[in-house]
Specification:
DUF47 domain-containing protein, mainly alpha
Length: 206
């Protein structure tokens, strides 16, 4: 790691860890949604909305700290990118849950559970990785695994699209379900953006 002669604002590390922990909460709510009957989903959506608001608060706190700090632990643009990508993940997960409720989806297509399992695993890895930003140690396996998970998510997404267009669903239902699986795919992409940003930071700090 590069040696520094100036002190650094270290509260960013705690804020990134809190943001990632909140994403784990969101991923658990997604898993809960899978096993819930339609009448119970509105309450899950409310808790997801609260988690998304908590994520927004965490992101705003990072931006405020960034704007008020003279010395930062790593490049300002990387701090902004990391915070924004973490926020995107939460936004996409909340959107997916909200769409399931708004569209009154009776049954999600087979394969959505695999999408959500990938997101849950990526959330766990991201939460585990954030504390390592302090030392930049033991991060290589994290971004490699998240990139692998994103590739897996791409394959699941393509299979889901093929399933949606196989004639089983009517046109309106296809549009609704496609929007949901597309948003879940965007969440997987956002996890990859976080991992890529962490890799960029680690390379710069090495």
């Amino acid at each position: 790691m590069r040696f520094r002669l100036t002190p650094r604002e270290t509260s960013f590390y705690d804020m990134f860890a809190a943001s990632a922990d909140n994403i784990v909460t969101g991923s658990k709510l997604l898993m809960e949604l899978l096993g819930a009957e339609p009448p119970a989903r509105a309450e899950i959506a409310e808790r997801m909305r609260a988690a998304e608001h908590a994520g927004d608060d965490a992101t705003h706190a990072i931006f405020h700290q960034l704007n008020s700090s003279f010395i930062t632990p790593f490049d300002r643009e990387d701090i902004y990118s990391l915070a924004s990508s973490l926020d995107d993940i939460m936004d996409f997960m909340e959107e997916a849950v909200d769409l399931v409720v708004l569209y009154n989806i009776e049954e999600l297509p087979k394969g959505v559970e695999q999408q959500i399992e990938v997101l849950a695993r990526a959330a766990e890895l991201t939460a585990e990785a954030m504390p390592h930003l302090r030392t930049m140690d033991n991060l290589t396996e994290y971004w490699i695994e998240v990139n692998r998970l994103e590739n897996q998510a791409d394959q699941i997404h393509r299979k889901l699209l093929a399933q949606l267009f196989n004639g089983k669903y009517d046109a309106i239902e296809v549009l609704k379900l496609k929007q949901i699986v597309d948003v879940l795919e965007e969440a997987a992409d956002a996890f990859e953006h976080v991992a890529n940003t962490v890799e960029t930071i680690a390379v710069k700090e090495s």
